[in-house]
Amino acid sequence: MADKFTIGLVQMKSTKNADENLSRAIEKVKEAAALGAQIICMDELFRGEYFCRTEDAALFDLAETIPGPATNAFAQVAKEKKVAIVASLFERRAAGVYHNTCAVLDADGSYLGKYRKMHIPDDPLYYEKFYFTPGDLGFPNFDTKYARIGVQICWDQWYPEGSRLTALSGAQVIFYPTSIGWHPKEKAEFGAAQLDAWRTIQRAHAIANGTYVAVVNRVGYEGDPAKGDPGLEFWGNSFVADPFGQIAAQAGGEKEEILVVECDSKKSEETRRNWPFLRDRRIDAYQPILNRWLGE
Fold it and tell me: Is 44 marked active-site?
């Protein structure tokens, strides 16, 4: 692995047609590769609309095995274009056991492993606890041809513990595939603050850990108000932050985009030397964090 590597983020809209979304994603991977990207990440659950807006047992039929059809298709393009790929998929592990999972493929098409989303939300229009079993693989790193990477998924991004553990395993960049947006009735009053908080927490992970953070969100409106589904307006704004939290590149909020950013691991070295947060951690004093609450 070299000191410098280039990452690509694919911010896209998704339809209800899984095969169409996969085909479009593959074409966008090729486009990102042509722009110089070496490690390419899709947004969360890109193969379909964000189905967790409702609780419907029939939607479990959308799940697939990992490895499986999607990873096989990505393996071909990974090998052809010599790129590593992070693909967010709805995983069928067994009858009645499903996960929100990212598969990682290396630049020769080989399957490196998976990360299963650890933190599962349950909020209006984000009914993920109905569908997803919490992850049980911890916070692994993956050694691609170009860099050592870690993965978190959407709701994970609000938890500094996961980011810290991922960084402590040596991740040079942490990818955050995401599907987050505004409730239509909330956007006017809370929209700007919600977007700012989302961007701030992830920049903070970059700063606290001295590592690159790459956040790729979907974009577009999904819903059907005529049928009682108010829908979500996904806010895009995918971005890459450097090890000091500075924005290296950012997408807009309304259209599909591909971000390509060169990362330099020497920036992590320099940042950690001058802001030695990892050196000064009081690992002898953090045991209480394993408790749910420290009051009564």
Answer: yes
Q: Which of 44, 49, 128, 222 is catalytic?
A: 44
Q: How far is CA 39 from the centre of its chain?
A: 13
Long-range contacts of 231-236 (CB under 8 A, 24+ apart): 231/53, 231/125, 231/184, 232/50, 232/53, 232/125, 232/181, 232/182, 232/183, 232/184, 233/181, 233/182, 233/184, 233/187, 234/50, 234/179, 234/180, 234/181, 235/180, 235/181, 235/182, 235/191, 235/195, 236/11
86-137, pLDDT tens digit by residue? 999 999 999 999 999 999 999 999 999 999 999 999 999 999 999 999 999 9
Among the listed residues 102, 117, 128, 263, the single catalytic one is 117
Residues 98, 83 contacting (CB under 8 angstroms)? no
- Residue 81: active-site member: no
How much is the pTM? Answer: 0.97
The one catalytic residue among 41, 52, 102, 154: 154
Question: Tell me: the pLDDT tens digits for 247-293?
Answer: 999 999 999 999 999 999 999 999 999 999 999 999 999 999 999 99
Q: Is 41 a catalytic residue?
A: no
Give me the domains of the chain, ranges plus CATH numbers: 4-290 (3.60.110.10)
